[in-house]
Fold each of these.
Amino acid sequence: MSLVVVGSMAFDAIETPFGKSDKIVGGAGTYIAWCASNFTPVKQISVVGGDFPQEELDALTNRNVSLEGVQIKKDEKTFFWSGRYHMDMNTRDTLDTQLNVLADFKPVVPESYQDCEFLMLGNLVPAVQSSVIKQLKKRPKLIVMDTMNFWMEIAMDDLKETISMVDVLMVNDSEARQLSGDYSLVRAAATIMNMGPKYVIIKKGEHGALLFHGNQVFFAPALPLEEVFDPTGAGDTFAGGFIGHLAKTEDISFENMKTAIIVGSAMASYCVERFGTERLRQITKPDIDARLAEFVQLVNFDIALV
Ligand code: AMP
């Protein structure tokens, strides 16, 4: 079993109605790696510039994240993203996207990654995502893909090609609507399943997530939190928990995907408690178990149907 993660490693600058971060380490791949490494070793594929802190790379290595597939372009700058959240903390505006090293990123899958059984395509240029699939000599057992509206606006054809190659697509509700052209999330999921993926996950921020497969649907709530400090990376952390659980258990049944969605939701609930990856770096197995128990309580009830 081996989990390969592809995704951006970045600097982010975040503004919320309650605070502002300096340039901090972020990126979809970074969040996924920090999260998934709680469950299973990770083989990372990404690119950073010479300005990316070595301590950050060392911290990931210490977490059992292999960085053999992470290119370091000494004379270039790391990808930069900046966003501002609205009062509801569920919606945000992108203020700046500087692709830098991502602009001409050509991932090279190391030979030691060829045993990949679980592939997590974090949010990234769709053609880069598909190039990783094409480089794998044996198709992984499960390919999960995340994406965002940015790519729907500038690379729709490539995006559709990549979507057609994966098993599970994760998008948020507005992205599902944009991709399918349908306001109904049930119809949107059906349309997206017709594009290729057998499973579609639609994330609804503080309102939880839906998993669709054929005619089946499962709903996982988000944990009601008193305070959401910074939602950045919640989607990536959710993805890391989802694929991390599946890779650890090596079970890709719909039933186990339900559990994986709860694990993803529990991990995301930790992520949003501090800026950036700060909270994710602190949590341990007992913390994860405690939060999973809260989820069980949240949705557990008795009913007598007569
Ligand atoms: P999320 O809040 O889960 O949607 O993910 C936020 C992370 O995605 C941030 O840390 C950003 O660095 C990263 N990100 C934002 N835009 C892009 C993009 N166009 N390509 C790759 N990563 C991005």
Note: The CA atoms of residues 94 and 145 lie 21 Å apart.
Amino acid sequence: MTFVVTENCIKCKFTDCVDVCPVDCFHEGPNFLVIDPDECIDCTLCEPECPANAIFAEDELPDGQEAFIELNAELAKRWPSITEVKPALPDADDWNGKEGKIDLLEK
Ligand code: SF4
Ligand code: F3S
């Protein structure tokens, strides 16, 4: 099992999740974070920390978010690790909750 970052992180990237992960399994892209499924120990700590409610257990993903399982695994291999909190993206609060953000994912 693993936890998965889903669509609502896109263009928000609050990074509160990074602060609590005991095994540093977050990786950072231009406007999205992903979890490396090979590193995640299912500790559950990050899930309640995300202001965008974007993190879910793999087997509790909301409908329509299934593609993010593969996206997290794929992008974690390409993107650098992030271990420290940084400021959220500009307009993160405006983008929080918007639909259709998967089309804006920058890889
Ligand atoms: Fe890290 Fe735990 Fe979240 Fe997995 S569940 S990404 S180990 S904080
Ligand atoms: Fe993204 Fe939420 Fe972390 S918006 S960067 S998953 S705190």
Note: The longest strand covers residues 3-5.
